[in-house]
Amino acid sequence: MSETSIIADADDMARNRQRVYGRSVTIGSIGVSILNLYLAFHVIPKFADIFPDMLGNRPLPFVTTLVLHGRWVFVALAVFWPVAALREVRRRPAWFLIGLFAITFIEVSVTVIALFLPLIGIIKSMGGTG
User: Fold this and answer.
1) 22-50 CB burial, b ≥16 within 10 A, e <16
2) Domain-by-domain residue ranges, the chain?
3) Which of 77, 83, 78, 69 shows the shortest CA–CA distance to 114?
4) What is the pTM of this model?
5) What are 51-82's pLDDT values in tens digits?
């Protein structure tokens, strides 16, 4: 084997690895976005119905209010990120797609934490001082 063919093989392997990483991250991004859509359409409305009965007149934490009133922004982002990943999977390096996946994952994490913050507050208020 000549040196040029070894370099060409190494370049092909690098491109194939990049393609596999890109596709894997894109599939992960789609999966997390589906989870986010499920949260937006099924879970958030149920929590919105529960909070007034559970909390009475106590205010919700800011992040919870943001998630409850801005859920359509989360839906738009949940659709945008995988579309962007699918569009850019062949043009961008893997780190770009990993960044899109991270943003999608953070979006789901913020949503779940925001929904459980009022419950955590209730549990803390129920605890005795000792």
Assistant:
1) bbebbebbbebbebbeebbeeebeebbee
2) 3-121
3) 69
4) 0.73
5) 888 888 888 999 999 999 988 988 888 888 77
Name the nearest CA neighbour of 103 among 71, 70, 74. Answer: 74
Helix (H) or strand (E) holding 124: helix 94-126
What gap in Å lies between CA 47 and CA 100, rounded to an integer? 27
26, 82 Cβ separation under 8 angstroms: yes
User: Which residues, at least 6 apart from 86, have a Cβ–Cβ distance to it below 8 Å?
Assistant: 26, 30
pLDDT of residue 130 exceeding 70, the answer is: no
Tokens (6 digits) for 26: 């894109």
Distances (CA, A) of 58 to 23, 80, 120, 126: 46, 35, 14, 15
